[in-house]
Amino acid sequence: MATSNISDTFRKAEETDIERIWQIIGQAKAQMQRLGSQQWDESYPAIEHIRQDIQDGNGYVICREDRVVAYGVISFDGEPVYKEIEGKWSNDLPYVIVHRLAIADEMKRQGMAKQFMLQAEEVSRKKGVYNFRVDTKYDNTYMLRLIDTLGFRYCGEVYYRNNSARKAFEKTIRPHSHPIGISGYTIREATLMDAVPIFEVIDKDREDLRIWLPFVDSLKSAVDEERFLQSVLAVPYEQRDPVYILEQGETICGLAGFHFSDAPNHRTEIGYWLLPTYRGKGIITHAVRYLCQWAVCKRNINRIQIRCAVENHPSNAIPKRLGFTLEGTERDGELLVSGEYVDTNVYSILKKEVESWNRKSN
To answer: Whole-prediction pTM value?
Structure first.
């Protein structure tokens, strides 16, 4: 349950809320009729829609002092009419959508609709879904203003019942940034919108990075990075190996993330790279510490592995500094772009050892 201020509560709608929700829907319909808007009509939405929303777990309300003052649907089930858009969506990734948003008369012009939309973004972040799509009638000036305020981009037209045309919009929800323990530096999950800036920083330092990162030579354009991020983000959040951006402010310093996860055996691997300008500051050490704690707390991972080329001394220093155990060396464990096979050191840390970090710090 999230709260927007001391008296407002955002939560899932319940059966006992239906009478009040229906009253608010009626107020919204009356206002649309006065304004000449054809967004809703006498048959839509019906009270059966509200009941079904709640049964599906998609209905949400905002309460002020325990009284419902806003209602809307937050859904990840997809909207069939969006498949036939006259225009173009930016990608085919999963998305969140808000339908049937209505605000009580006494709460209008108090930012309640915007608050609901921002709460929808929070619900979506928790599911690892960073696409937000909405649609509205051409005459719904209030919703059009709200959409513009929230930074949505026009994508085209979609058509509902009776061939009713709606303007369709989308935006990318920016994941929250988290401090890593070094002033000014943060970590956050990458989205599709990051493809261009990630490619640009890699391209700028390509000759340095390609020494130990074989993937760099195959990354020839931002489209290649976009394809990679799309393949990551298309996986449901619970099974995803997230890619994280390390930033100073909004400037990319490097990337870190998970790969080769084995959920049945509760194990994963962490990889990382950092631009030359930012090395020697402890950024990767702090970022890997954050990722280890996240993996243990959020995914119940028991074993975390890091593999480093034997001669890549800065990379080897990270797991050593964090107390990983060197388990052995893989002979010819990696093929570099030079055509040379190099041995790789394999380090691991266990859940109980990560949990001991917190006990020691306390």
So the answer is: 0.90
pLDDT digits (tens, 9 = 90+) for 219-247: 999 999 999 999 999 999 999 999 999 99
**C-alpha span between 168 and 166 (Å, rounded):** 6
Please tell me the distance from the alpha carbon of residue 269 to that of residue 324, in angstroms, as a whole number.
Answer: 12
Look at residue 3 and give its three-state secondary structure.
strand
pLDDT, tens digit, 9 for 90 and up, residues 109-135: 899 999 999 999 999 999 999 999 999
d(CA 145, CA 356): 51
β-bridge mates for residue 350, sequence order: 303
- Contact in structure between 86 and 58 (CB atoms under 8 Å): no
Token pair 């998609």 is found at: 58
Residues in the chain: 362
Nearest to 13 by CA among 129, 119, 127, 146: 119
How far is 38 from 63, CA to CA, in rounded Å? 27
Inter-residue contact 9 to 62 (CB < 8 Å): yes
Tens of pLDDT, residues 273-318 = 999 999 999 999 999 999 999 999 999 999 999 999 999 999 999 9
Q: Crossing angle, helix 195-204 and helix 222-233, to 10 degrees?
A: 130
Cβ count near 324 (within 10 Å):
23
Q: Is 278 helix (H, G, I), strand (E, B) or coil?
A: helix
Torsion over CA of 224, 228, 230 and 235, rounded to 10 degrees?
170
CB-based contacts of 28: which residues, under 8 Å, 6+ apart?
A: 40, 102, 103
Reading the block at residue 2, the tokens are 């999230």
Nearest CA among 153, 160, 145 for reference residue 114: 145
**4 pLDDT exceeds 50?**
no
- Do 124 and 160 meet the contact criterion of CB atoms below 8 Å apart? no
- Quote the mean pLDDT of the chain: 94
Contact 85, 168 (CB under 8 A): yes
